[in-house]
Design brief:
It is a single chain. The chain is mostly helical. The chain folds into two domains: 4-46, no CATH class; 56-117, no CATH class. The chain is built from six helices and two strands. The chain has helices spanning 4-7, 12-18, 27-30, 56-70, 80-96, 100-117; strands spanning 33-37, 42-46. A two-stranded antiparallel ribbon has the order 1-2. A hairpin with a 4-residue loop joins strand 1 (33-37) and strand 2 (42-46). Helix 4 (56-70) crosses helix 5. The chain is globular, with a radius of gyration of 18 Å. The model is unreliable at 1-8 and 26-40 (pLDDT under 50).
């Protein structure tokens, strides 16, 4: 039985699996967006496929890549979503080529650097 009150104690990965389209959860639960507050922060959890919350840095990075490649792929019209889709496809190719450990290590390093950059010193 699904209990929204207990869900906040599950990892994001587990919540995602519970909310996946193939899960046994009723459809109304899979599309639930749930909020809870603690003293330190507010957290939003979506139990369905949703657009990511991009930071201004991430938006600027996509835009920089879009600007850089727009002329290079001319006369094709390039959209920001094309840049994102291409980058994601490239990561998937690396995974399919057996480079999962390398990709995971680079991602872990990226997450660590971001966390360090946003931690007050």
């Amino acid at each position: 039985m699904f209990s929204a009150g207990r869900e906040k104690f599950l990892s994001p990965k587990r919540r995602g699996k519970l909310a996946s389209p193939g899960s046994n959860l009723p459809i109304r639960v899979r599309h639930l967006t749930w909020k809870f507050s603690r003293r330190e922060d507010n957290a939003n959890f979506s139990y369905s496929v949703h657009a990511p919350n991009l930071t201004s840095n991430e938006v600027r990075l996509v835009h920089r890549l879009w600007l850089r490649f727009s002329d290079l792929v001319s006369p094709e019209e390039l959209h920001h979503h094309d840049v994102v889709h291409f980058a994601l496809d490239e990561v998937m190719k690396e995974l399919e080529d057996g480079k999962e450990a390398d990709v995971a290590a680079r991602l872990k390093e990226h997450v660590s650097k971001n966390k360090a950059a946003h931690t007050p010193h």
